[in-house]
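As a warm-up, study this chain.
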Amino acid sequence: MSFLISLDELDHVKRVNGLQTIVDLSEATAISRPTWTRAIKTRRPTPDILNALADLGARPNKVLVLDGVQDICAA
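Now compare it with the structure written out below.
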């Protein structure tokens, strides 16, 4: 099991900040477009991405989700 970036929270952060594209995310943060693209595709959190999301107002209790929750529930 591992933690993944919550796409719901990412969408929330984008909506609250009026950001529509990865380019908008890149311009609003110090994170490059390719780094945002990779983070969204893999959903793997990195310190830089988590810090950028925090700066944009991501809710700490919602920014990460546990990968494999379905496996736990099925057991």
